[in-house]
Amino acid sequence: MIKKRQVKEIFNKSVDHHAHRGDIMRLEVLIEYGGIYLDSDVLTLRSFDPLLNLNDVIMAHQDDGIKVCNAVILAKKDATFLKRLYDAYQSFNENCWDCHSVKLPGQLASIYPNDITVLPTNAFFRPSWNEKAALYASNNYDFTPNYACHLWNKKNNHDHLSRLTPELALNANNTFGRMLRHAIGNATLLKLKEFFNS
């Protein structure tokens, strides 16, 4: 864990929402140290090793092939693309929810394509936030192309993630349950179930 400043403003603009503060903090840490950033609701499904040397920055499209989501970022230290994104916070507007987290990275990627590799949506963001049924109501989504799955906690927490238990992960007959068993393993889930039931 890297202790960083508490973000309250950027370029003399107030930053009040914790999500926007997190957007800025991840950029500051990745620019300074490099590494892999994952939102806390991202489930990794396979190794990122094949991605590590594709470019200085690796991100993925969200939904439409234009937006590029910052919930998963692989970056080398001092990456030019992330510095450009950080500098673009000079136009930060607290009232535009996803301008600097999703829209602006997509715009910058189209202007500076050599500074970033943008993967297809299914690398990290499928099923998408609006495809909840593919994750929780059915069991036929093929996640083999996914390196990870963003679980969209903001959209799915009340219905699904807040009720998650090892027993549910072991028995859920849906894509989400299958992903959890794949990522965590049945043996680990059984140990967790025993631990929470003791």
Protein architecture, described:
InterPro entries: GlycoTrfase_DXD_sugar-bd_CS, Nucleotide-diphossugar_trans. The protein has helices at 18-33, 80-87, 99-111, 132-136, 153-156, 166-171, 175-184, 186-197, and strands at residues 9-10, 13-14, 35-38, 42-44, 57-61, 68-75, 117-119, 148-150. The chain is an alpha+beta fold and 198 residues long. The chain has two domains: 9-123, Spore Coat Polysaccharide Biosynthesis Protein SpsA, Chain A; 132-197, no CATH class. A hairpin with a 2-residue loop joins strand 1 and strand 2 (13-14). The protein is globular, with a radius of gyration of 18 Å. The relative contact order is 0.14.
List keywords for this structure.
8 helices; 8 strands; 15% strand; two-stranded antiparallel ribbon; 2 domains; Spore Coat Polysaccharide Biosynthesis Protein SpsA, Chain A; single chain; four-stranded mixed beta sheet; 198 residues; alpha+beta
